[in-house]
Amino acid sequence: MSLLKIKDLDSRCNAILTLLYNSSEYIQIDYIAVYINMSGRSVYTHLKYINSWLKANGIPPFCLKRGHGIMLSGAQKSFLEQFSGQEDFVPYFFSSQERLSVIICVLLYPRKQIYIEQLEEYLQVSRNTIFSDLKKVKTELGIYKCSLSYTSAEGYRILGNELKKRTLFIYYYQKILTLLESNKIDLKKDYPFLPGRDSDLAKIKLKAVADKTQIPLPENMLKTLSVQMCLTASAPAPLQFDFKTGLNVKDTSVYRLFKTGFPDMNEEEILYYCFHFISYHHELVDMTYDHDDLMLINKTAKEMVDCFLALSAVKIEEREQLISRLASHLKVSLYRYQIGIDIGNPLIEEIRKQYGDIYEITEQVCDILKQNAHVPVNENEIGYITLYFACYTRKNRFADNRINLIVVCPSGLATASMLKTELENLSSRICVTGILSAQDLQFCARDYDYIISTVDLPGDMPYIRVSPIITEQDKKNIKNIILKKQDESSRLSVTRIMDVITPYISPNNYANVEKELNAIINRNRGGDSGCGPEIAQLLDFFSPGSIRIAPCVSGWEEAIRAASAPLVEQGYILETYVDAMISLVSKYGPYIVVNDHIALAHAHPENGVLQIGLSLLILKKPVDIIDKKVDLIFVIAPVDNQKHLFIINLLMKLISNPGACAPLLQAEDPALVFETIRNLTEK
Fold it and tell me: Where are the alpha helices (DSSP H) in 436-554?
């Protein structure tokens, strides 16, 4: 690509002109906006600057052709040739969130004075944009009880408790780590948070500790800690650990290895990095808690699982196992919070994308964690907990498994469990027989057919590389490589059968017989699982006929029956489903009450659900459901663990909006209630 360098125009105007100069076709505004990470409105503003510059140089401005976009004329390209040159590096333009992350990383440990001019140069944006970004930075810093400082002598820098500052750095550096590794950022530039070769040596030493202690420290954390270690080595600030731990860190092999590997490091620094390493070792983390702490964590995990079941209306067979695994996760996450570690979550966007319905419900569930443990819960933690719920919600066991897979995944229990489930859900023929680290793989007996790995494996070991949160492309690759071979063997078997039976069947029936044989073989092997069509809109499963308004009821049992009546009448559920809901409330208490005055009644699909559906009862006088007052009762009829989650999330939006609930309670007509809900879903 020929890059244009026009000193009278800023970097983004140059980028737009470069894009247009190298194109022989029309380019739409939306494409330009994506290319340079800015809004469509900003693109139009920059185009005005460019046209003004062209006009000032006696060149006709370009025009936007409706439905096509912009294309430079021959005369315009001829004029721009004088500014063209060849360069290896194509400039990258940061998004707003990326700029925020870079600014915080730069200002936490500046290697020189940082002023507005330096930030403009690093980020290639205007002074006004930098000032706007700094306002956002101040807001973010406030969450961590840090502040933004400026003096003419020192420039901008971030002040605060050293542990908080390090937590900030780890969190935001990981957000830009992929940019640094993908060469989207010009590493030739002197970015002040890049220590260079020193961090490579530190990483080698840290990895040696991780390998010798068999602690599965993720690659992104190794890189982040090594960079942080180099940035703080020259002038380490005092670290104050104001928390108690039942574990004597100095008795661990981690501590001894750090003392040997980093002889010049002071005691506080060694303890800091030991705490990080211990946070990835479940057994050592367990030793940091006393009996009361463990009881609280187990109680919290149970309440969170029960809340998820109540909100999601799903059935989880292995409830106790889920509680146990979630409790193990909470021990680690609360330990990290206690010592001021935020490991980030590089998978958060993928989690939101693939498990959005479950993520939104988990967000509600995490209120219990906030209340019980008195800790803030950010999006990263919600994402990790989402994986646990998604894993057990989507679990689908098959009786006949024919393809044995080994999963190599160092990312953690939640990610590995989710990956295992997703692989097994690809086909009834797939069975994941083990989850290993790359180091353990060499000791594994060859009792598997294929290896699925989230990391690169050494040597010529055959494996399929996938993302920790398996993508649609990953699924296609696995099907093409693994399932295709199985399908080919199926077709071969059919061919052999047809060779045998051909003399005994009519030629006219050949195609039909072959088709039936293929169908039988595929059915016996177990076809690919699918979740069916996605739910498009809440209103597809809701109507004025599904809504009832009652002045009062004699009790909560009658309330559930009245709320369920439309679904029974419409043939969506049987009376046995209503009985099951009442039985569950009698057994488990008011689990269906999900918010003030609002209940979401449900049972399991096998109790009498014929078709997915939703109904609503509005009570003018609240009913008492085991000491909880309720005047809105939704009844949902789920057909499985997946298809109704969309409905749940739309209901959550309704429930979380008191202004929307008030008109429902005041309405006298089901049609008016329906219109209110329609308006809400359209927002």
Answer: 438-441, 472-478, 484-501, 510-525
pLDDT tens digits, 528-539: 433 333 323 556
Q: Is the pLDDT of residue 653 over 70?
A: no
Task: Report yes or no on 131 lying in a domain.
Answer: yes
Whole-angstrom Cα distance, residue 609 to residue 580? 11
| Neighbour count for residue 342 (Cβ, 10 Å) | 20
pLDDT of residue 194: 61
Whether the Cβ atoms of residue 667 and residue 678 lie closer than 8 Å to each other: no
Please give the Cα distance from 433 to 424 (Å, whole number): 10
Per-residue pLDDT tens over the stretch 355-410: 777 888 898 889 899 999 888 888 889 988 998 888 777 654 333 345 778 788 76
DSSP 8-state code for residue 88: S
Instruction: Report whether 449 contacts 405 (CB < 8 A).
Output: yes
Q: Rounded to an integer, what distance in angstroms lies between the CA atom of residue 479 and that of residue 246?
A: 48
Q: What is the DSSP letter of 70?
A: B
The token pair at 318 is: 């292995």
CA dist., res. 604 & res. 584, Å (int)? 10
pLDDT on residue 492: 46
Whichever domain contains 349, its CATH number is: 1.10.1790.10
Q: Can you give the pTM of this predicted structure?
A: 0.57
- HSE toward the beta carbon, residue 51, CA cutoff 13 A: 11
Q: How many other C-beta atoms are found inside a 10 Å radius of the C-beta of residue 15?
A: 24
Residue 402 lies in a domain: no
- 156 located within any domain: yes
Name which of 645, 616, 497 is nearest 549 in CA terms.
616
Q: Among residues 484, 510, 530, which one ends one of the domains? A: 530
Q: Is 18 left (phi over 0), alpha (psi -120 to 50) or beta?
A: alpha
Least confident of 66-75, 342-351, 522-531: 522-531
Exposed e or buried b per residue across 562-576, where buried means at least 16 C-beta atoms within 10 angstroms of its C-beta: bbbbbbbeeebbbee
H or E, element range at 35: helix 29-35
**Alpha-carbon torsion (530, 535, 540, 546), positive or negative:** positive
Q: Could you tell me if residue 331 is inside a domain?
A: yes
Which residue, among 122, 128, 127, 169, has the nearest Cα to 146 in the 3D structure?
A: 169
The total of structural domains in the chain comes to 6
CATH code for the domain in which residue 50 is found: 1.10.10.10
Q: Which two tokens stand for residue 193?
A: 């948070």
Nearest to 452 by CA among 443, 460, 464: 464
**Do 313 and 386 sit in the same domain of this protein?**
yes
* Separation between Cα atoms, residue 336 and residue 475, nearest integer Å: 34
Containing H/E element for 124? none
Which contiguous run of DSSP H or E holds residue 137?
helix 127-143
For 54-84, b/e burial (b = at least 16 CB within 10 A) is beeeebeebeeeeeebbbbeeebbebbeebe
Domain residue limits at 250: 197-233+245-281
Evaluate whether 358 touches 392 at the Cβ level (below 8 Å).
no
Which residues are registered as beta bridge partners of 86?
A: 2
